[in-house]
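Journal club prep — side note

Before the paper discussion, L.F. wants everyone to see what a predicted structure for a comparable chain looks like in token form. Sequence:
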Amino acid sequence: MPLAVAPLDAVESIAILRARTGLGDLLCGVPGLRALRARLRDAHIAVITYAEMAPVVERMRAHVDEFIAFPGWPGIPERPVGETAGFLAGMRERRFDLALQAYGANPAANEAAAAVEAKRTGGFLVTGTIEPDLEVHLPYPEHRHEIDRHLDLMALLGAPPQGRALEFPLTEADVREAAGIPTPYALVHPGATSASRRWPVERFARVADALAARGLHVAVTGVPAEGELVAAVRAQMRAPALDLCGATSLGGFAALIRDAELLVANDTGSAHLAAAVGTPSVTVFLAGDPVRWAHPSPHAIARVQVECNPCRHLVCPIDHRCAQRLEVEDVLACLP
């Protein structure tokens, strides 16, 4: 009787379509990549995602050999579609052994993965949308944490888990960027990509004042486009606070988080960085889904259950009740 052939047997090159623009999305995929690398020590592993995510993929070099810029695809909403002909020609010429759709529950992503014409195509799928190869396709596990979804996919292929921990390795340059902040300090991060995940600035200000009352120096952080938001929090605080909006590179920001006593943030990339570098955090969950995105202790969740959360609206179409009903005292109760 012939021995069964595992999906990853004889795979020497693999392209993973992870067409996401969120820092948390990519970080939560690292445990899956770690499992894959442990199974395929000598294979060439490439990650396909948007050009601006190259610095994040660079931090995955322990598990990833190559970053490939993704031009977009019709039906994948993160970015407008760019020039796909050259991208596809290059991918087809290379003839990867396996292409994986690791985007999520979107049939358009399956189309994009199939279009690179690898020798075999697999990954997530929405049941009933394609004719699957069940050895390498996994019905998208909606009920699972983002980390575990990717671990499930790799386990299906024959790559057992190597732990759930996130990773974001720091460089000496990162550490130098973060130097000079008065210690001990806490970070407050009031921004988020979508308005539906932003808690009101006046409430962040009150939490920041409570941290200052504990004897912590407080710094308010954000990406460069969030300057007005950071200024609004600082303006409503009684205690002084540092403005670190856009003050560092991504690596420097990760080093700032690593050396902080605590991060208080909305459900956004900074919360995942805290998990990756091991700093305690309190994450305010509003529209977002903690079942999918929260991390275990020492990472606490501040949230109130309302009739409509979690939801996928980028801007709340009603009264943003998940934000309005989450009181400052609810967040303070989560502080370590």
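L.F.'s comment for the group: The first strand starts at residue 13 and ends at 17. Keep this in mind when we get to the figures.
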